Amino acid sequence: MNIDIAKQIAAIARAVERLPGGAEDAGECVGVSLRRTYNSAVEDVWDAVTDPDRIKRWFMPINGDLRVGGTFQLEGNAGGEILACEPPRLVRLTWGGPRSIVELRLVEDGDGTALELDHIVPIEMAQSGAGALWVGPGWDGALMGLSLFLSGESIGDPTVMAASGEVQAFSKESVGAWAAAVDRSGTATAEQLAQATTISLAQFAPDLAAPDTDRRSDPAGS
C-alpha cells in the first residue's frame, strides 16, 4: 500500500487547549480535537464507526455491550463505558478511565461527511498540553485507516499495518504535527513538549525514533 503521507497529514485539523475544571469535574483537563472530511455519506461513516464487523477492518476488534450504559473493550487497547449514542450523529464514551472522555460527531460537509473528535484528558494524566502527544497521533492513525477503508483500500490486518514502516513514517509526521499544535496552543513549556515528543515518537514510530530515545510510556519518566 502506498500512502500519500503529506496528503493524509494535511487532511486532519488539530487543536489543543487546556480546560478549567467545572462544577462536576474534579479538575483541569487537556482538550484534544481533530476534524477530517470523508467523501462518504453520514450514514456510511456512522456505520463504519459503530458496526463491530466494520470497526475491526480499519481500527481493531471490539467487544462488549455496545449500547448506552454498556461497556466496550478494544483488543489490546482501551475500554470504557458508552455514555451517549445518537445515530447517526454522536457517540460519547469513556476511554480508559471515568474522566477520560471521547466524543465523536458526524456532520454533513458538502457532498461528504466531517468527522469531529474530541478527547478530554485529565490534567493528572496529560500533565500539560503536551499530553496531546500521548493520544493525538493514535487518533490520526485511526482517521487515516478509516479514510483508506471508506475509499475501498485493502488494509489487511490494521494492527499489522500500524507497525509497518510506511505507517510509522506517517506517525512520525503526525507527532510533528501534534507538537506544532501544542506549541501554537501555548499549553506546555518547551521542556515538556520536547520530552513528550521523544516519548511519542518511541511509542508511535519506534523504528524511526533516535537510538537513545527513552521508550518508557510513563509521561513522568519515573
Would you write up a description of this structure?
This protein is of the alpha+beta class and 222 residues long. It contains eight helices and eight strands, in the order αββααββββββααααα. It has an eight-stranded antiparallel sheet with strand order 1-2-8-7-6-5-4-3. α5 crosses α7. The protein is globular.
Number of strands: 8
Count of helical stretches: 8
Nearest-angstrom radius of gyration? 17 Å
The neighbouring-strand order within the major sheet is: 1-2-8-7-6-5-4-3
Overall pLDDT metric: 92
Sheet with the most strands, sense and barrel status: 8 strands, antiparallel
Estimated helix fraction: 25-40%
Q: How much strand content do the residues show?
A: 25-35%
Could you state the order of secondary-structure elements as H and E?
HEEHHEEEEEEHHHHH
Structural shape: globular
The end-to-end distance, rounded to whole angstroms, is 39 Å
Residue stretches low in confidence (pLDDT < 50, at least 5 long) are 212-222
The class by helix and strand makeup works out as: alpha+beta
Q: What is the secondary structure topology, with strand pairs?
A:
Blueprint: H1 5-10, E1 13-19, E2 29-38, H2 42-50, H3 52-58, E3 62-64, E4 71-74, E5 79-86, E6 90-94, E7 101-109, E8 112-122, H4 123-126, H5 132-150, H6 158-162, H7 165-185, H8 190-204
Antiparallel strand pairs: 1-2, 2-8, 3-4, 4-5, 5-6, 6-7, 7-8
Helix pairs in contact: 5-7, 5-8, 7-8
